[in-house]
Design brief:
Elements lengths: L1 H30 L7 H28 L6 H26 L1 H9 L13 H68 L3 H21 L5 E2 H16 L6 E6 L8 E2 L5 H10 L7 E10 L2 E9 L8 H20 L4 E8 L4 E9 L2
Helix pairs in contact: 1-2, 2-3, 2-5, 3-5, 5-6, 5-9, 6-7, 7-8, 8-9
């Protein structure tokens, strides 16, 4: 329906444009002289206008798409040059056939005898310039419309590619997350059955989030933070007393929208690399949301013993995918800073996303 309305508007614009052009150039301008002109003159004006209209749409619908847009530029120029010459010659032939020069002399100077004079080609050149203007306008309009159509197609293809890539990246992240979480619960069943049950309840709530929310491009920030809280609580069931956790996630926060499971890989990474069964460790996770800017800060130690584990390698894939998602969804609207202190084996991430 919208396409049909646009087509009607386009036709109306063409009609009004040509009506205004024809009236001003071929009717109003001659009438402004205040001289009654012969019928042959008005027939010439009608022929002139019809020829301009014909070359305009012949170029617009045929020569421009079939010749110019096929990179046959010399042929296109030659066609219009020949058409311009035919246009001028036809007007000259009409003047000679109707003896229009004498008729116009009698209309403007009825008291002076007509004396044949050499033709004034100034008017023929001006007619040729009007012809070239019609060709130029038709070429410009067709070129702009083609550029707009090509740009629309390019944007649609880019969006389709982005959507396909985002779906692929989310499909990679989700199995990776469940693989690690189920491993944690499996370990708990051998230690504390009640904790394992609690973990399963939290996991079921998280699964509902993953199943329903990740189907969307965006989700509510409060839902994303609830998901992260559940994940951290699940991790607490696994870690020992040697791990010091400092979590700063506000209970109440201004509502906004964010890509689902975008923050999880950074938080998951803290538990992958920042926990040791032999040494004491500390994990710091803070979230802040002010003036539509979300800031995630994580700090953790890096233990060499964790770097070659299958989970760590999977974590690396998850982080790479998340960075790619940030590029696709928040291009020029996010800032990701990572800092690694090799002397103290500390690792820090500061992610800032503009959620406007």
């Amino acid at each position: 329906m919208a396409s049909y309305d646009k087509q009607k508007i386009s036709i109306l614009i063409h009609f009004l444009g040509w009506a205004l052009f024809g009236f001003v150039i071929f009717v109003l301008s001659p009438l402004s002289a205040g001289v009654e002109r012969p019928i042959e003159y008005w027939v010439k004006q009608a022929i002139n206008f019809s020829m301009l209209l014909s070359i305009f749409y012949l170029n617009y619908f045929y020569f421009i798409p079939k010749v110019l847009f096929k990179n046959k530029i010399p042929l296109f120029l030659l066609i219009n040059l020949i058409a311009g010459l035919v246009y001028v010659v036809a007007l000259i032939a009409y003047d000679d056939y109707t003896n229009l020069q004498e008729l116009m002399h009698k209309a403007f100077r009825p008291d002076i005898a007509y004396v044949p004079r050499p033709r004034n080609y100034y008017w023929d050149i001006s007619q040729l310039l009007i012809f070239l203007m019609a060709v130029g306008i038709s070429t410009s309009i067709a070129s702009v419309q083609k550029w707009q159509a090509d740009e629309k197609l390019r944007l649609e293809q880019n969006q389709q590619q982005i959507n396909s890539e985002l779906n692929y990246l989310k499909a990679q992240i989700n199995p990776h997350f469940f693989f690690n979480t189920l491993n944690n619960i499996y370990s708990l069943t051998n230690i504390d059955v009640e904790k394992a049950k609690t973990a399963l309840l939290k996991l079921s709530r998280m699964m509902r989030y993953v199943l329903y929310e990740t189907e969307k491009t965006h989700t509510l920030l409060t839902k994303e933070l609830d998901f992260i809280r559940d994940f951290i609580e699940l991790m607490k069931l696994r870690i020992s007393s040697k791990v010091k956790l400092e979590i700063q996630i506000p209970e109440k926060i201004e509502e906004a929208v964010i890509a689902p499971m975008l923050l999880l890989p950074f938080i998951e990474n803290c538990f992958k690399h920042g926990i040791s069964s032999q040494q004491e460790s500390a994990i710091f996770i803070a979230l802040e949301y002010t003036e539509k800017e979300l800031i995630l800060t994580t700090k953790n130690k890096i233990f060499k013993s964790n770097e070659n584990s299958p989970e760590s390698k999977a974590s690396g894939i998850g982080l790479q995918n998340t960075k790619r998602r940030l590029d696709l969804l928040y291009d020029q609207r996010y800032d990701l800073q990572t800092e690694s202190n090799t002397e103290e084996n500390n690792y820090q991430v500061i992610l800032k996303i503009n959620l406007r």
